[in-house]
Amino acid sequence: MERNRDIDNSTLRAIAREVRKDILKMTTNVNSGHPGGSMSVADILVTLYYYKMRHNPDNPKWEERDRFVLSKGHVSPALYSVLARCGYFSVEDLMTFRKIDGNLQGHPDMLKTPGIEISTGSLGLGIGAAVGMALGLKLSGFDSRVYCVIGDGEAQEGSVWEASMAAFHYNLDNLCVILDNNNLQIDGPVDEVMSIYPAMEKWKAFGWHVIEINGHDFNEIRAALDEADTVKYKPTMIVAKTVKGKGVSFMENRAEWHGKALSPEQLKEALKELGELV
What we know:
By secondary structure, the protein is an alpha/beta fold. The chain has a single domain (9-273), classed as Thiamin diphosphate (ThDP)-binding fold, Pyr/PP domains (Rossmann fold, 3-Layer(aba) Sandwich), CATH 3.40.50. It is built from nine helices and seven strands, in the order ααβααβαβββααβαβα. Helix 5 links the parallel strand 2 (146-151) and strand 3 (175-181). Strands 1-2-3-7-6 form a five-stranded parallel sheet, sandwiched between helices. Strands 4-5 form a two-stranded antiparallel sheet. The chain has helices at residues 9-30, 35-52, 76-86, 126-140, 158-169, 190-193, 199-205, 218-230, 264-273; strands at 67-70, 146-151, 175-181, 184-185, 188-189, 209-214, 236-241. InterPro entries: THDP-binding, Transketolase_CS, Transketolase_N. This is Transketolase.
């Protein structure tokens, strides 16, 4: 699949709405998972897979594909939904999430799930893998790009900064990292637990090209990803300001939904907000 420049924002928005429904259904179905951060990153993942990235669901290992790494692997429901809706596997398979006989583990598993580039879950490690992929593509002469999503709580990990230093050192202008900056982690606000701010200035100091956007505005997401394509001799960091639990009023900006599923009754209420007849 070549990059789809013609897709409009209303289509992206409609897909993201279905992805949010999937996230809530999957996690409620097994009473487990991380719905809050999955909801905050949904618009970013939809834009990557439907607008920006070059990939092929019929040939997941296509050599010239762009690569995506979900470093904050606990928000796998969002990625699984997008992969299914792109055609990597059936949408019906989403209901096997976190089930012992299914292929959709709680965290992405490259050995079980089509479309997963590398297994993630241990926070701070995915960005290092993305740096390695970007360097490998450069050395191999491919023009493919690498995209990676990290969490703001994850940015408290020292390995994130070691990887960031290496990315600049090796002039990885084929690497674009997106910070899902919803400002909440499992124990509460990021700036109270262990502040990563000022985030933009930190990555600038590490030599990165830095862009700040509203992570739910499709125009801004698209423009930032396009801008990253034009940057030479340095990696790009997109600081995406997002809302944990985005799309459901009683979930938004609430740390309690970091790793807790909705009850069946709450699911019905949430799906109504997302426009589904239940």
